[in-house]
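Entry:
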Amino acid sequence: MATNTHPRTASREEWLLARKKLLVKEKELTRQRDALAEERRALPWVKVEKEYTFTSRQGEKSLPELFAGRRQLLVYHFMFGPEWEEGCPTCSMAADHFDGSIVHLANRDVTFVVVSRAPLERLQAFQKRMGWNFEWVSSNGNDFNFDYHVSFTKDEFASGSAYYNYNNKGFPADEAPGLTAFIKNDAGEVFHTYSTFGRGPEHVLVPYSYLDLMPKGRDESGLPRPMAWIRHHDRYGANP
């Protein structure tokens, strides 16, 4: 919404009538979201037969070891390729909010881990720069990112038809974001239960949730592409 235009000015009483009308739609959306979450939990599970070895600050870890004693594992696929000098700015905006959630997730039997293909030393250097503390492991040298369709070979990327978000429309980079959920049963077997890509994980971009409440919204219409305004938090000007 342009700053020099806005909806009509109304009395408080008129505003309240309009707000209550919108509230009906908001409540319906909430009920739909709850029903969708229930359907999501009812999806069938796929047993993970393949073994993966990740590099962590504690040494090498298998996928079951990433659970850290809990039954559920949530992986954020952070865009940071092996040859990249730094992580994706948009993933970084999401990551700015990870640390505060970890203790709450742990108390609901969920371990949260970030996975990228960049070597561990590069991940650690960038993590130190950003001031983050969450568990970030490297999948460099294994097929995890490729098997879960968030990394693409050079040929896949060049073809413009890489498989991402359940179709072959490609992606504008050789790394892509996403969220993947796993569960481990009493026998120690790991199952893949859910993955979401594209705008599916958008809720982790917390500032967008706030911007959607504001009169100007996301204010991206004049940009060359959505999210073009996002920077690493140490790269914004002092007076935005």
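The longest strand covers residues 190-197.
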